[in-house]
Amino acid sequence: KDAKAPPSAKELFRAAMTNVLERRLFFIPSFKIYGSVAGFYDFGPPGCAIKQNVTQLWRQHFILEESMLEVECPAVTPEAVLKASGHVDRFTDFMVTDMKTGECHRADHLLKAALEALLEDPKAGLTPEKKTEAEDVLARIDELDSIGLGTALTRYGVKTPDTKNDISAPFPFNLMFRTSIGPKGDAVGYLRPETAQGIFVNFKDLLYYNGGKLPFAAAQIGQSYRNEISPRAGLLRVREFTQAEIEHFVNPDDKDHPKFESIQQLKPLLFSQELQTNETKQPEAMSLGDAVTNKIIANQTLAYFIGRTYLFLVGIGISPKRLRFRQHLPNEMAHYAADCWDAEVECSYGWVECVGLADRSAYDLRAHSDASNQALEAYEKFPEPRFAQVLVAKPEKAKIGKLYKKEGKPLLEKLDNLSQEDAACMKKSFGEGKPATVSAGGRDFEVTPDLLDIQEKEEKLNGRKFTPSVIEPSFGIGRIIYCMFEHAYYTRQNNEDKSVFRFKAAVAPLKAAVFPLVQQPEMNSTARSISAALTRAGLANTVDTTGTTIGKRYARTDELGVPYDITVDRASIDGDGSVTLRERDSTSQVRVHKEKVAAVVQQLVSGELTWQNVLDTFPAQQPAAEEEA
Amino acid sequence: KDAKAPPSAKELFRAAMTNVLERRLFFIPSFKIYGSVAGFYDFGPPGCAIKQNVTQLWRQHFILEESMLEVECPAVTPEAVLKASGHVDRFTDFMVTDMKTGECHRADHLLKAALEALLEDPKAGLTPEKKTEAEDVLARIDELDSIGLGTALTRYGVKTPDTKNDISAPFPFNLMFRTSIGPKGDAVGYLRPETAQGIFVNFKDLLYYNGGKLPFAAAQIGQSYRNEISPRAGLLRVREFTQAEIEHFVNPDDKDHPKFESIQQLKPLLFSQELQTNETKQPEAMSLGDAVTNKIIANQTLAYFIGRTYLFLVGIGISPKRLRFRQHLPNEMAHYAADCWDAEVECSYGWVECVGLADRSAYDLRAHSDASNQALEAYEKFPEPRFAQVLVAKPEKAKIGKLYKKEGKPLLEKLDNLSQEDAACMKKSFGEGKPATVSAGGRDFEVTPDLLDIQEKEEKLNGRKFTPSVIEPSFGIGRIIYCMFEHAYYTRQNNEDKSVFRFKAAVAPLKAAVFPLVQQPEMNSTARSISAALTRAGLANTVDTTGTTIGKRYARTDELGVPYDITVDRASIDGDGSVTLRERDSTSQVRVHKEKVAAVVQQLVSGELTWQNVLDTFPAQQPAAEEEA
Questions:
Q1: Tens of pLDDT, residues B458-474
Q2: Distance to chain B for A168, nearest Cα, Å
Q3: A30–B contact, CB cutoff 8 A
């Protein structure tokens, strides 16, 4: 982007909001007195309270209401786990370095910025062909490998943005933080790049805990770590962040969901593969029931989680009009994935992925089963016994022992517990006169027909073992909170300097603030009693006895998104014992007795009462002109 | 310890309890399918729920009730922060290696085990002098440095326990997990060994947030990491754990606490320095008011937190008789600490430190102020202006500039903002004809009188700047939970195979379980309605429709510490619509109407009702003999 271009409306909005967020300590760049480190943020007091509220709401909405099995696993993870999951080999971004300064940059980010600048520059004088070509590269940037990126960077003559120096060819950089476990320094560990793996490695125990029955879901809320090459975009791309992930394990032959009916009428904006590639390129509101019937969403369970995610996000304050579920295009989707959708939220940075919802089939359990040599399977009992052609595989133990000695042990275990699928695959290889390759105990074995006899037999089957499919909704809590900030922020119509966050009461860092109108012992003590009653009711609150003008105190709490302000005045002490109760967004006020006001606020926060109910019940109080000026 | 000795009663108790904890997935050795890694545990579903409950209760008890400022900082921390805090240089344990295998051991652990074995061995034939000597070394093990440890290990001929090989001399091993931040690999980072530093580096912002006023407290709950040399002792010594830390910042001249009165009558067991060194060596129950009056506890604020800690621990189920507050002996205490007490809980491993409560004076803020070159001070306005002799320090800018060039800049900044204390100290040095050493910008400078003029003047002071003292209560959540497990575990008097956890309802992983007596659609659906009503009331619960005998289902929930079981039987469907409600510890039952039972359980969990109230109100149900057999 041209540095001299005036900031857009979106950028001005973001700058104004970020100013409030930083000034009121919603978040703080970490280690500030030491000059900070890119990609790390602290949550300050109001941010921390909001994060607590959001994760507790998530826990209630998903874990408690769906009886999920919650686990908490360490962030430090030994290499074997992340080797099996593919992260050690493939969790990389392409990096280029400045040939003079050695500074590191993400190759795709540089290319993207260069192409955007080129396309926006009226002086570039691009021919229509060149323009189409540049647009095409820009659209496909995520598909490029290191060679493709390198070619494009050279073709467009991309330099380092700040220094204008030449850049290196792109090379992969693994994004995991590496450490070593134990005193000897030889046990490599990483900080987990996602919380999901902790669930997969516990699958066996969790299935047992669930009485051996499918479907069931496990969930984890915790920190994940990605050593981003050059993090920017504030709270959206950070190196340490909170994830909330669900792994819903299900029989691959039956992905219906018992509670599907409860969400099938919901109509979120869906941005299917088809809608993304047709002419209009616009998402459409569509009922989830129709989306499954018309095979736009692959199955009920995935659609159920899309529906529950929609309810959660809208429930905490994401605007439904700025929330869409975008299906991955075929080229974005991993080869094993059955279907993937991202919940994307519109904010000043554009549409931001906040939740990923993927049917990952049996990929993860298979990968860990292969690497750990442990069966990670479920058992399904058939209602009636079935007769079927099955493959019976008999390993030649003596020959294998002779050939591989001690190392053959994991191979034997594997061959003794061969799945039908694997047996079929090996039989096919043998039929083609080729040996089969079997991974066991961390190495590959070549297995020839003389080592393994595979016969087809008819068998009476009372049930079957199978590897469950997993449907994974994965939430980035920090991104969701950031987008929620943007959707909640506004300035008063009559006064642009007055910032407000219209947080839902359940999310707001404080539910109420109590103000003695002037600094006076009786008013202070009444304020403290009201505060204590609010605390007893479990409502976070504050008392502001500074004696600043009440208008300034209202403005301060508006900036924190506090939904209700209570002011103790003369009448509270000498008159009818009432206090004023003010609602943040309407700024309207009523008078409520001081003994009752905590209960009224509690009912407002819990949703038992609306503000309209309160306006209808209690006498209105006209705010003094200067209070809301 | 002699491997052949029969297990003690404590060890049997621990083995029985651990069996239940692992079987019911309260916790799981992490990465089990890959063979686990010492010092890492997962919390499984019930453990996770308990941990959630304990941290939420902590947050309510400390953060909300005291209006503390909660923050959340990253675990990945740049080196500068932990250099300043002293962890890079001094956060070490002494290690020895097996001279043949290279295996690593903690030097103090080997020495302790060897001395204990020696003292217990009847065949060792120790003379009284040798015995006293060995006992003396054992008692002072924590005071030994590497040379002292090495001498003792040699003197007692200590070998590696398993291999009996020789061991190396002890050397310090830093317990922090090391990593690097960013793609270049040159920015060293560590996983934080405690959460406290995140609060100290934010002190300036937090003080501002609090309107510049002292005292205030900030708190953080989060993961900390210690790369233990050879972790044993199960959940007590782990490499990744949850801490909850409070930093209460206070004027060093006024450590009274406004709410001290609310706890001064409490009488926890106090184990003061005096009681530890007198003849009986027993702690005594003493009111906190007396302890402060008699200067046993240094100040009201420290005593206030001891009281609040006592209430918290007892509130979640720690037995008050097995909880003591032990004062650090002079040789345990850091030179800067004004007073330190540990909350120790007795369990099968002995007395375990679960909470540290320390008055750390101004140490931490000073260390970060020196290293970051930022003033971390508060300002106190005097009620009346004071006239005082003050030291005015005038740096000779030109000379300093000439001498140190650019590097002199941080020195100048420092000298311009010299505290009275530092100025006095430097004046003293100059008076003795010695130069003073000043740390600034990460290096030491020698300052001579010609570079800095220090004059005493009378000045009118409206207030003063000072570095606040910090009082730090630091909780190890995992250790507290483990001790709580031990205090809650018992087996039924009539049946040692029946394990029960007598968790407090607020801590219990599930508040209720609902059982249809037999597998029958109407009973199942009634059970589900009751479960839904419990969920709406925010009570975690489960439905067990397995149709196993009701006695077995009771036993299963007893093992999870579920306080209330609800059974739907014939009468619930065809009779008076009542269900049975059973209390875990008494195993007594009443009949309550199915529409009311969720509300009754809610009142029991919140404490509005006791079980005795329920027994007095509702008709008793005699359990069938086999149910509690």
A1: 888 899 899 999 999 99
A2: 14
A3: yes
> For residue B2, what pLDDT is reported?
47
Which residue intervals of A36-127 are DSSP H helices? 45-58, 79-84, 87-90, 107-120
**Angle at CA B189, nearest 5°, toward B185 and B194?**
165
CA–CA separation, B364 vs B334, rounded Å?
Answer: 12
Contact assignment for B173 to A191 by CB distance below 8 Å: no
Residues 6+ apart with CB under 8 A from B159: B165, B166, B167
Burial class (CB in 10 A: 0-12, 13-18, 19+), A364: buried
From CA A581, how far away is CA A611, in angstroms rounded?
A: 10
CA–CA dist A452, A98 (Å, integer): 55
Interface of B with A in 82-111 (CB under 8 A): 95, 102, 104
Q: Would you call A177 and B179 a contact, using CB atoms and an 8 Å cutoff?
A: yes
- State residue B540's pLDDT score: 92
Kindly write down the DSSP assignment for every residue of B606-620, as one continuous string.
HTSS-HHHHHHHS-E
Burial, A529: exposed, middle or buried (Cβ in 10 Å; 0-12, 13-18, 19+)? middle
Coil vs helix vs strand at A48: helix
Residues of A in contact with B223 (CB under 8 A): 75, 223
* Cα A187 to Cα A179: distance, rounded to the nearest angstrom: 9
Average pLDDT of the segment spanning B587-592: 96
- Chain A closest CA to B8's CA: distance in Å? 30
Segments of chain A scoring below 70 in pLDDT: 1-5
Average pLDDT over residues B130-141: 89
Q: How far apart are CA A75 and CA A77, in angstroms?
A: 6
Residue type for B331, please?
A: N
How many inter-chain contacts (A to B, CB under 8 Å) are there?
A: 205
Alpha-carbon dihedral sign for residues B57, B63, B64, B65: positive
In angstroms, the CA B342 to CA B309 distance is: 10
Other beta carbons less than 10 A from residue A609's beta carbon: 17
Cis peptide leading into B215, omega within 30 of 0? yes
Three-state DSSP state, B539:
coil
The Cα A477–Cα B96 span in angstroms is: 44
Contact A52 B59 (CB under 8 A): yes
Q: Would you call B228 helix, strand, or coil by DSSP? A: coil
Reported for B265-269, long-range contacts at CB under 8 A and 24+ positions apart, including other chains, are B265/B289, B266/B307, B266/B310, B266/B311, B268/B306, B268/B307, B268/B310, B268/B320, B268/B323, B268/B324, B268/B325, B269/B320, B269/B321, B269/B323, B269/B324, B269/B325
Average pLDDT over chain B, rounded to an integer: 93
User: Which of A31, A184, A188, A543 would you mutate first to test chain B, the one with the most B CBs within 10 A?
Assistant: A31
| Average of per-residue pLDDT across B552-573 | 96
Angle B146-155/B107-120 helices, nearest 10 degrees? 40
Residue A421 vs residue B243, higher pLDDT: B243
- At B334 the pLDDT is 83
- Is residue B307 a contact partner of residue B288, using CB atoms and an 8 Å limit? yes
Ramachandran region, residue A238 (left: φ > 0; alpha: ψ -120 to 50; beta: rest): beta
pLDDT tens by residue, B10-36: 999 999 999 999 999 999 999 999 999
Q: At CA B583, angle to CA B581 and CA B586, rounded to 5?
A: 135
Question: What residues of A are in contact with residue B552 (Cβ under 8 Å)?
Answer: none
Within its chain, how far is the Cα of B500 from the centroid? 26
Residue B279 buriedness (CB in 10 A; 0-12 / 13-18 / 19+): exposed
**In sequence order, what DSSP letters do the residues of B386-426 get, joined into one string?**
EEEEEEEEEE-HHHHHHHHGGGHHHHHHHHHT--HHHHHHH
The model's pLDDT over B488-512, given as tens digits with 9 standing for 90+, comes to 999 998 888 899 999 999 999 999 9
Distances from the Cα of A85 to the Cα of A202, A282, B30, B359, angstroms: 14, 35, 16, 47
What local confidence, expressed as pLDDT, does residue B4 receive?
58
